[in-house]
Design brief:
heterodimer, A: alpha/beta, Rossmann fold, 9% strand, B: 7-stranded mixed β-sheet, 41% strand
Chain lengths: 316, 110
Amino acid sequence: MRQRPFTSVFAIFLILSTSTSTALGYYNPKLGRFMQRDPVGPVNAAQITPLVNRGAAFEPVYAVPSPHQDYREGLSLYEYVRSSPAGSVDPSGQFSYPDIKSAAGLAASLYGMYDTVTTLKGAFARFAADLSWRNLALTLAVEAAATCVGGKALDKLVDFAAPLLRGAADKLARGLRRKVDKVARDASDKVRRAVALDANVIVRALDAGEVAVVDRALAGRTPIVSITAAKEYLRKGDANVLREFLAARGGRIGKAPSETLVGDLQSQAHIIGRALHLADARVVGSAVVESVPLLTKDAQVHRFLRAVGIPVEYLP
Amino acid sequence: MSAFNSVRVSMECPACGKVGPRVVQFKFADCWQYEYEVGDIVRWAERRNVGQPALRKVVAVGTPNECLFCGDCPDTFEVWVELDKIVKVCPDSGRFDFVHSSEPYIVVEH
């Protein structure tokens, strides 16, 4: 039996640099040929069985009869795999065919890896843009199968596996969707459980000693204090008192709004004939950015927010 | 919100004409939810006040609560301060553009 792989042939060159008798027969590196006839011997056309679609991923060796088919490996019975050792293999000595483990196969594998990475990148981009889990999983599975194996014969496998993959993808999609929905619900609940406080409410709670009144208004929700409101309170209030108040209720300092948002809020107030001064607009803007209602004692701001539909609660 | 002060007054409702108590919020001087009455002197802090002390005549935008009788709730009242003394609270006369003022008060006379 002859060993084909390209590297093996070179190994024969190196190890058996002189004509050496082996189980594989004689090979003369100087002549670049075997010293024994191909065991398949000459054949006539009647004996030829076209090797159509032998294996899945390569072309048939003899799809159409030709004069060369009188000799399976070419006109010379001392020739190996039709003088193409880099791309073919003849393990039985009876016929040659392309080797998926050859350099070409390796290149194909590398391309497959590259293609898989590209596929995954594309899939991830789609994942980020659109949580279409079912389509994503199905596409990934099918593309991965096509990339890793390829070939027409695998189409049948894909056809066979597609319903199974689709079922698995559907199941995966349902599971992921449930998780995504749960995260969304948790985030929504978190927003519902928070409320922004303006400086007047903080002053009332911490400086006027009416924490109980403010706690009733909070109703268990997490207080969020904008940077502007905190600064306003800290003008005369104690930072540690504010810190303890927030920590005891799981509260925090709110995000600062963009100046664009602040300007837009002021413009909106002007349009409807109301005043909204800069510091007030920043406090409102923070509540808007946090997507939480604003608890305020400022009647003017309360009326403006109510007029424009921004969630607001009034503390008398 | 920036903090405010308030002034308690008893005045005639511009909507129903009945006289009743009103609490009018305004932002001038040291704003820390101090409650004043007409005739009181406003307080000033060492820093970060709204406006400046000893102005001859200032009108601050006031925001009243609802009328106890008719529920009317005008957007704007005027709170007049002269030399740091609250001298008058009245419905918006329309003479001052509080909407486009950069501050919640207008200096009428320095």
